[in-house]
Write a structure and sequence with these properties.
Elements (H helix, E strand, L loop, with lengths): L3 E9 L9 E13 L2 E14 L3 H4 E3 L4 E3 L6 E12 L4 E11 L2 E10 L2 E11 L3 E15 L2 E12 L10 E13 L3 E10 L1
Antiparallel strand pairs: 1-2, 2-3, 3-6, 4-5, 6-7, 7-10, 8-9, 10-11, 11-12, 12-13
């Protein structure tokens, strides 16, 4: 129907080296009328328990080489909510994610006057949980052929050394949208990202 939608997807592995991996995805949205237009209240959630990929565990090159089969499965749990009002072209999204055994690439070296020495690189896993918070406001404007799209995002990681994220992201896109001789679509403008 037009009011309520939902989707649940599950995937697991029963044999081989990927035994025990699991992916669960759930989405839903509720649409209702308010002041002559539609408001959408949506939610997404997922739970992933996945082993690091083959190329994360094994890397062979001239300067770096590792074989690490002792990595634990990475577990990610995410809940996200979205409130959207089409009439004003406004949306607000809030997401919370918890990551256990976060797998990442790391590099270290000593800086000297002659350059870098004692350089090492490899795959690492963060012990414990990392929490990631994201809040995003999107506001678009339209006046004739003039379009102005704006997105403001706030992020916070509980472990900025392992999973650094920019605290504030700003995106703005200002352009003209029109057609030449009713055939050639033109978007002329510019955007800025901070």
């Amino acid at each position: 129907g037009k009011t309520l939608h939902y989707n649940l997807k599950a995937e697991t592995w029963l044999l081989g080296e990927d035994l025990g991996q699991l992916k669960l995805d759930f989405t839903t949205d509720l649409n209702f009328r308010l002041w002559g237009d539609t408001v959408t209240l949506a939610a997404k959630a997922y739970f992933y328990r996945l082993a690091p990929t083959y190329y994360q565990r094994h890397y062979h090159a001239k300067h770096f080489w590792w074989d690490n089969d002792g990595l634990n499965k990475e577990t990610r749990t995410r809940i996200e909510g979205l409130l959207s009002y089409r009439k004003t072209q406004t949306s607000l999204r809030v997401a919370i994610e918890e990551i256990q055994n976060y797998t990442y690439f790391g590099m270290s070296y000593d800086a000297t006057t002659n350059g870098r020495t004692q350089m090492s690189a490899g795959i690492h896993q963060a012990g414990g949980n990392i929490n990631l918070l994201t809040a995003q406001l999107r506001q678009d404007f339209r006046l004739g052929i003039l379009r102005w799209e704006n997105t403001l995002t706030y992020q916070n990681s509980s472990n900025g050394d392992v999973l650094p994220v920019p605290t504030l992201n700003v995106f703005s896109n200002l352009y003209l949208k029109f057609k030449i001789v009713n055939e050639l679509a033109v978007d002329l403008g510019g955007d800025v990202t901070f």
